[in-house]
Amino acid sequence: MSYEYLLVPVLDEQGRVEAVAGTARDITERKANEERVRRSANYDSLTGLPNLSLFRDRLDHEIKHALRTGLPLALLFIDLDGFKAVNDELGHAAGDELLRQAAHRINGCVRDTDTVARIGGDEFTVILTDVTREAHIDVIARELLDALGAPFPLGPQNATISASIGISLSPQDSIVPDMLVRNADLAMYVAMYVAKHAGRNAYRYFTVQMHPASPTP
C-alpha cells in the first residue's frame, strides 16, 4: 500500500517545536492508476513488450551509449512471415496467442540488457548492446530464426511460420535512430526476398547498396 503524509509542527509559546501533527492518506489506488497510464503509454498491451514509443527512446539512448563507449549496437528488425495466414485461418484469438508466444521466444534469445519491442502488427525489434563481435549477432539471428520457425501450439492444433530479419549497426550504418530503423527495415525486405527464393527463414545485414541514392548520416 502507498500513503501520502502531511506533517505540521506544533509550536509552544516560545515558538519551539513541541510536537508534530499529521495525517496520512491512502493513495494506493491513485498510484495504481498512474502505473496503468504509464504502462499503456510505453508497453504493448498484448505482449507486455516495450511499444514503438518506448523503443524509440531506448534506441536513442543506446546509440548515445554506443558513441560514448565505442561499443557498437545492432538493431534487428523482425517480420513474422505467414502470420497473416494464421490470423485469417485460425482467427484473431489464435493470432494474438501466436504473437504472445513469439514475444516470449524472442525474449528468450537475448540478454536482459538488450531490448525487445513490438512496434506494430507482426513486427518486432531487438536492440543488442555492447556488441564486440559480429559473430555474436549471427548467433542471435540464427537462434531467433530457429525459435520462430518451431511450431506454435495454438489450442488443438499447431501453426508454423517463419521469420525474416534485417540488421543495421550503429554507428557504422547510422547514428540517427529513424535512419537506423529504416536501414534495418530495408535489410529485412531483402531477407524476405531471399527467403522466398531460396527457402524460408533468412537474415541480412544492411548495405549502402540497398538505397544508393540516400546518403547515410
From TrEMBL:
Q: Which residues form the GGDEF domain?
A: 71-208
Question: What range(s) does the PAC domain occupy?
Answer: 1-39
InterPro entries xref list: DGC-Regulatory_Protein, GGDEF_dom, Nucleotide_cyclase, PAS-assoc_C, PAS-like_dom_sf, Rev_trsase/Diguanyl_cyclase
Q: SMART domains per the record?
A: GGDEF
Q: SUPFAM superfamilies, per this entry? A: Nucleotide cyclase, PYP-like sensor domain (PAS domain)
Record-linked NCBIfam families:
GGDEF (TIGR00254)
Listed name of the protein: GGDEF domain-containing protein
Its taxonomic path starts at: Bacteria, Pseudomonadati, Pseudomonadota, Betaproteobacteria, Burkholderiales
